[in-house]
Backbone:
């Protein structure tokens, strides 16, 4: 099983990034997937979640700015992040929570 995130980087406040998570080794399409983040000195928090059927959930801090999506044909999870703020700075992880699969993370840094 592998979950490999990419797309992180350094961006100015107000900018955008698109994260990707390539999944392999399990049946991606049948699992709910999520994006989580962990800022320095803080706990890991759920950012967004998408069900196997495409239903979405967003935390209050990102709702209206971030969009989670999935391409089951390509076994890939996405997170489009717009209007980024310095407080969005964190390591971002994708996960299939119900089976405990986590990626290694991709760093997002937003400068003010």
Residues:
């Amino acid at each position: 099983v592998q979950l490999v995130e990419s797309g992180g980087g350094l961006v100015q406040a107000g900018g955008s990034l698109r994260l990707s998570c390539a999944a392999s080794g399990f049946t991606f399409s049948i699992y709910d997937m999520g994006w989580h983040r962990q800022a320095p000195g803080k706990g890991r928090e759920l950012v967004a979640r998408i069900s196997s059927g495409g239903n979405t959930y967003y935390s209050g801090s990102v709702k209206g700015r971030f969009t989670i999506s999935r391409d089951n044909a390509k076994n890939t999870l996405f997170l489009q992040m717009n209007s980024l703020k310095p407080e969005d700075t964190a390591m971002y992880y994708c996960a299939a929570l119900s089976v405990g699969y986590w990626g290694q993370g991709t760093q997002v840094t937003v400068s003010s």
The chain has a mean pLDDT of 97. The chain has no helices and eleven strands.
